[in-house]
Specification:
Blueprint: H1 30-37, H2 51-54, E1 60-63, E2 66-69, E3 72-75, E4 81-84, E5 111-114, E6 130-134, H3 149-154, H4 163-170, E7 174-179, H5 215-223, E8 229-234, H6 240-246, E9 249-251, E10 272-277, H7 280-287, H8 296-299, E11 307-311, H9 320-337, E12 340-344, H10 346-353
Parallel strand pairs: 6-7, 6-8, 11-12
Antiparallel strand pairs: 1-2, 3-5, 4-7, 8-10, 9-10
Length: about 350
């Protein structure tokens, strides 16, 4: 735990606090007592509160009559974040978020407060994971900027947190900040924006465009091993392009498979949340908490075999090695899903079905 958990070091074993839900004394086996007594300076606490409910898991320190959570501050050297967030009281229903006004060790760099990774539990499938969100998601008590100074000035503090973000928090993940994007969720390259500097793409020489519009979310996941995943959005490629150029995994669920409540829209029929991570195993863990129970996909069961559309207008490619990989992937996908592959040409279909009013 000390090796894998960034806020921890061996000095924390000098003072260990053990709690339980009842008033009975905590008992240890002889071997555990001997191991603890080698370093531990014992202090006895008597508290009437149910500590397990009120204190987040992870390292804490006792100072001036209070117990404080310990976090580690990382510099946002890639410039991926719009703002850092103060540790959020997840056990306080309706609690508002607050920004963390903390500078990093480098000039004009934010400091991001990162909690400890705590052990995974079945009751909270995302426990111990840290994440960030694109600044298009509403967070209770905070304004939304869309990476645009004028929009931030006109924005009002949100009354409710976006459903996707709340589901992720309820599953045990810890939010550390909001990330940059193309200004106003626009089509322009992030490097063309003027209000806020674009995030650095950590791939290549570090000065290539991170692409947009979910530039900060992809760049942050690519740059920082202390960030487990980030949430962006995708309408016409806003997550697919950043994932490609920053070299991370990305997935956007089918439309209406995840709630859009609390997301600033671009074009609602195409909008979808998107997930960035370096580990494909995390994709499944996070997406399982996003399922929209009101989705038409959930309400309507379909027994039809899936269909994979193969547009002949774009394939095959001249690169034969690339085509071998694509065809092998499609064959495996069809086999796993029990799907059919239908090849057709959009141009040919138009010629065959074009209405007379369309002319020649």
């Amino acid at each position: 735990m000390l090796e894998n958990d960034s806020p921890l070091n061996s000095s924390f074993t000098d003072g260990l606090l053990f709690t339980r839900a009842t008033a009975f004394e905590v008992e240890f086996q002889k071997e555990a007592q001997e191991a603890l007594q080698q370093r531990n300076r014992w202090t006895m606490f008597s508290c009437q509160l149910k500590i397990e409910r009120d204190i987040a898991q992870g390292p804490h320190m006792y100072y001036d009559g209070a117990i404080w959570q310990v976090l580690r501050i990382y510099d946002d050297n890639a410039g991926s974040f719009m703002t850092a967030l103060a540790p959020h009281g997840l056990t306080q229903p309706g609690a508002s978020f607050q920004t963390l006004n903390l500078l990093g060790s480098r000039y004009q760099t934010l400091g991001i407060a990162v909690p400890a990774r705590t052990p995974f539990t079945a009751s909270q499938p995302l426990q111990g994971l840290r994440f960030a969100i694109k600044d298009v998601y509403r967070l209770r008590g905070l304004k939304t900027s869309l990476c645009n100074a004028a929009y931030l000035d006109m924005s009002s503090p949100a009354e409710k947190t976006a459903t996707i973000v709340q589901n992720t928090l309820d599953a045990g993940a810890r939010i550390v900040g909001m990330t940059k994007l193309s200004s106003m969720i626009g089509k322009e390259e992030p490097t063309e924006a003027v209000d806020y500097p674009a995030p650095f793409n950590p791939r290549g020489d570090g000065y290539q465009s991170p692409a947009g519009s979910s530039s900060g979310s992809a760049a942050a996941v690519a740059a920082y091993d202390w960030l487990d995943f980030a949430i962006g959005t995708d309408t016409t490629g806003s997550a697919r392009r950043p994932a490609l150029v920053n070299g991370v995994f990305q997935m956007r669920p089918s439309y209406d498979a995840a709630s859009l409540a609390g997301i600033v829209p671009v074009f609602t029929p195409w909008d979808a949340p998107a997930l960035f991570t370096r580990d494909v195993k995390i994709l499944k863990r996070v997406l399982s908490t996003w399922r929209n129970q009101e989705s038409s996909l959930t309400r309507t069961a379909s027994h039809k075999a899936p269909l994979i559309v193969y547009p002949l207008d774009y394939f095959p490619l001249e690169n034969t090695l690339q085509m071998q990989l694509i065809d092998a992937f499609l064959a495996d996908l069809a086999d796993v899903l029990g799907a059919q592959i239908r090849k057709f040409s959009i141009a040919s279909l138009w010629e065959e079905t074009r209405p007379d009013v369309a002319g020649g």
